[in-house]
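Re: beginner question about structure tokens

> Can someone show what the tokenized structure looks like for a real chain? I only ever see the sequence side.

Sure, here's an example I had lying around. Input first:
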Amino acid sequence: MPVPATRSEIASDRSSALNLYEVDYHAWTQEQAQLLRDRQWQEIDLPNLVEEIESLGKQQRQELRNRLSLLLGHLLKWQYQPQHRTRSWLATIRVQRLDIADLLEDNPSLKPYLEEALRKAYLKAIELAAGETNLPNRTFPKECPYSLAEISDSQFYPGEPSELIGE
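And the corresponding structure tokens:
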């Protein structure tokens, strides 16, 4: 039977966990996972573990905004430069729609955040579309011209019809 640890030993263990967190994040994650599996509650680096779990939620929100930005940017390009449409643009639109649907299926609690994410993502989408089309930012509406229903609709492509869609 192990001897109970002294306060200084516990403090030393926590200090080494903090050091590991700072010098080898991967090793720290593996150690924390093992401590959780072994139910060694006193050994867990709780402050950093809490911070990392909160960060995971933020990463999912960021992932949603990034995918929306890419999708919206390509929808803008599709609408405002129909003469330059490519299969690559079409593929990006389709893949981003699928990835957003998967992300929302895996994280349904993100659905109430969609409107806010759309507003934030649209600002980046304008930058993407302007940068890739050489059109001035003022070409694009200040507010997102597409509804959430349109954005997620696999049949929605703004602007003139395209032969690429039927391929």
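Each token stands for a local structural state, so reading them left to right follows the chain. Residues 7-44 form one domain.
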